[in-house]
Design brief:
It contains three helices and no strands. By secondary structure, it is mainly α. It has one domain.
């Protein structure tokens, strides 16, 4: 996050420091924050709460399959 400020402070040709860099920091943070949050959420669910999303998805698929079979039996 401070890379832009560090670069501008070390840049000898820069006349104004930290004027437009905040916009670049905001853009980078708008991209990185959701990615980091989603990674944290998946790790927290799996390791702390013991929720395995693949098992839940497989269970939902099994329910959908059973519903379709029940509908087919009713129609026949």
């Amino acid at each position: 996050m401070y890379a832009f400020q560090l670069f501008s402070s070390l840049n000898k040709e820069a006349k104004f420091i930290d004027e437009n860099e905040i916009f670049w920091v905001l853009i980078v943070m708008l991209i990185l924050t959701p990615i980091v949050y989603l990674i944290r959420l998946k790790l927290f669910d799996k390791l702390v709460l013991g929720i395995d999303l693949k098992k839940i998805e497989a269970e939902l698929d099994e329910y959908e399959r059973k519903e379709k079979e029940a509908e087919n039996k009713i129609e026949v």
